[in-house]
Amino acid sequence: MKVMRKMYDMLMYGAYAHAKWDYETSMSILRNKKKMLFLLILCVALFCTGAVLVYANDGLILGGNKAYAPPIGFAAGAFIVAILVGFAAGLMTGAIGVGGGVVITPALMSVGIRGIVVVGTDLLHMFAKGIMGTAVHKKLGNVNYRLAIAFVAGSFIGVTCGGYINRTVYNINPVLSDAFISIIYVALLGFLGFYAIHDYFQLRKVGNAAHEEHEQKVEVSRAARKLQSLKIPPMIKFDEDLVPGGRKISFSLVTIVGFFVGTFAAIMGVGGGFLTFPAFVYLLGISSFTTVGTDIFQIVFTTGYASIAQYAIYGFIFVSLAMGLLLGSLIGVQFGALTTKVVKGMHIRAFYGLVMLAGFMNRLLALPSKLSDLGVFHISKSLGGGLKLVGVVILYGIIIYFALWVFYRFITNIKTFRQEGLRKEG
User: Fold this and answer.
1) Statement: residue 60 has pLDDT above 80
2) Can you say how many angstroms the Cα of residue 155 is from the centroid of all Cα atoms in its chain?
3) What is the C-alpha to C-alpha distance for residues 292 and 62, in angstroms, rounded to an integer?
4) Quick one: which of 107, 88, 102 has its CA closest to 400?
5) What is the DSSP secondary-structure string of 48-99?
6) Which of 87, 90, 345, 374 has the greatest number of C-beta atoms within 10 Å?
7) Nearest alpha-carbon partner for 93 in 279, 385, 312, 352
8) Which pairing describes strands 61-62 and 317-318: parallel, antiparallel, or unpaired?
9) Rounded Cα distance, 247 and 346, in Å
10) pTM: predicted TM-score of the whole model, two decimal places
11) Which carries the bigger pLDDT value, residue 22 or residue 235?
């Protein structure tokens, strides 16, 4: 129980660290007229490109329409939904640091898009967003390139395995593929969501000050000390700026961690960042400062390889959908990141939990009809459809409520943002 609790704390700490990165990236755009113009031009270009791809004969799917080719009418609607979902995911990424994948996958599967296509498309969207983010905001933090190389070496192998697993399950039965992805999301989002809500009520008792103090206290775990004591060459030195002489960890251990993170990233359609943080900090004993910069650096390579080599060439990429997600998220993250300066940490944790539980309920309520189609048990079509509809209402209801809340916080604190901008300029 203590190990699970520690892992959860690391997941949350990683979420806050990534939210800080998103905030700094957004600020570098909002305070620079040239970057703002670039973002505007980019958004217009993405919308036009996505709109053209919607009506292209063979451009809907990268890979020759071999896997999944929806009709043009559906594609047009899906493009609009993707913009809105991407916008909501951007708000959440900027405001609470939660990866957009945990929202995007359930949301798009709810409107009838196959899970494996959503996974591949979301990876492509994150790859493009990662490149743009690092191009706009070049300050990655303390990137340890030796750790990054070791991690990427393992993540490439893991991504290959994860992509193979997803494609194999899909080839056996597309419905089984959807059920497989849904079950993984149910397990992960349920764990994160219930823990987050439990923490929110605990923090209401002790107050936000205790929360802030707790979040900044991250010590090297006993497991990390044991792993660092294993002298398996070659060894990688890290955290030289934080610890006299630095610490060392075996290259092979970092590669193993990269393998597991890459496998889950490829199966779930997430960048792997939310898994990298607890693995690096809790398991390997790497400081959060080094972890954030290294993690952001590796995500570009992991998602790029996963989206192109494991999904695109097999026809599991919905290009216009990816354009819509990217367009929406680039705009949404600017608003969401601003709210991190005016919202209490425990409130962010509450929304983190609500988002996780919304995705959990959405996928949980979609499972009965899928399992019935697979012959595991039988329920009527009307009951299965009703349960799915309830799941859709819960997920989109929470997303809409969160978006309205962020806008409210943004509008009511415009004066604060302007004053902070003036102080920065001064």
Assistant:
1) no
2) 16
3) 32
4) 88
5) HHHHHHHT-SS-SEETSSSS----HHHHHHHHHHHHHHHHHHHHHHHHH---
6) 90
7) 352
8) antiparallel
9) 33
10) 0.82
11) 235
The tally of domains found in the chain comes to 1
349-398 confidence digits (pLDDT tens): 677 778 888 889 999 999 999 999 898 888 898 999 999 999 999 988 98
Contact predicate 329/100, CB 8 Å: yes
Structure tokens at 261: 């993170």
**What CA–CA distance (Å, rounded) separates 147 from 134?**
18
97: left (phi over 0), alpha (psi -120 to 50) or beta: left
**CA 237, CA 231: separation in Å to the nearest integer?**
12
pLDDT tens readout for residues 263-297: 988 888 876 666 787 788 878 888 877 887 788 78
pLDDT digit string, tens, across residues 310-330? 988 888 888 778 888 888 887
How many residues are given for the chain?
426
**Cα 38 to chain center, whole Å?**
24
42-51 per-residue burial string, b: 16 or more CB within 10 A, e: under 16: eeeebbebbe
φ, ψ of residue 29 to 5 degrees: the values are -85, -50
Q: Is residue 87 within 8 Å of 107, Cβ to Cβ?
A: no
